[in-house]
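Appendix B. One record, verbatim.
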Amino acid sequence: MKKRLLFVFAHPDDESFACAGTMAKYKEAGHDINLICATSGCGGKSGEYLVTCKKELATLRERELSQACNVIGVTNLYLLHYADGSLINQDINELAAKIESLIMQLLPHVVVTFPPNGVTGHRDHIAISRATEQAVLQSEEKMTPSHYCTLFFASIPHYYDYCADSAPTGAVPITGKVNIVNHRETKGRALHAHRSQIYSVNRAYPGVMQGDYGVIGQYEYYTKVRADGLLEDIQESTEGIPEIELC
């Protein structure tokens, strides 16, 4: 049966860093892949491009996001157009309501967002995690149990392997990993689409911007948070992280 997956992130490129392999895998399997991007990335770097204002940078990054979505096979892209860096200062009820509205429209089987520490500690990432979890809870109050989604947090445990700095505290246990071995090149090409973010890509995935995708791992990592209207008992496995399917 065709499933609907909804990924909710803060910036253009978040989807490619966290989930591009998974998204491509489920698209190839015939499922619908939907993406909400809350900001247009106007606070990021411009890489090799010369831009004169935040508006130009936002336009550039939205174009890069569109290109990455084409590579991945995203069915629907929803842009909320918040200012980069502003999510933590937004009314969380308003942000959650916008996400909830799309959940009610799409009725996704699976929703994926950042964990509470945002993977990198970025305050926009933290805000979108909170708002998405709230949106899922609110949507359950308005739909029948048959339409409840399964909520996952997406983690990137190896993000800092090639970085001088270290990961933030407060990481939740990872409860499963999705095998993306056949979609590593797609993830690499999606990352490559974000040319303006060459510094960020190079520090986490050195070589990808030069077409070397060997640094991309075989798995993408998730924490199952909520299913069938109930919170999961999140515990780290003592026997390693099991392979899972999101749907």
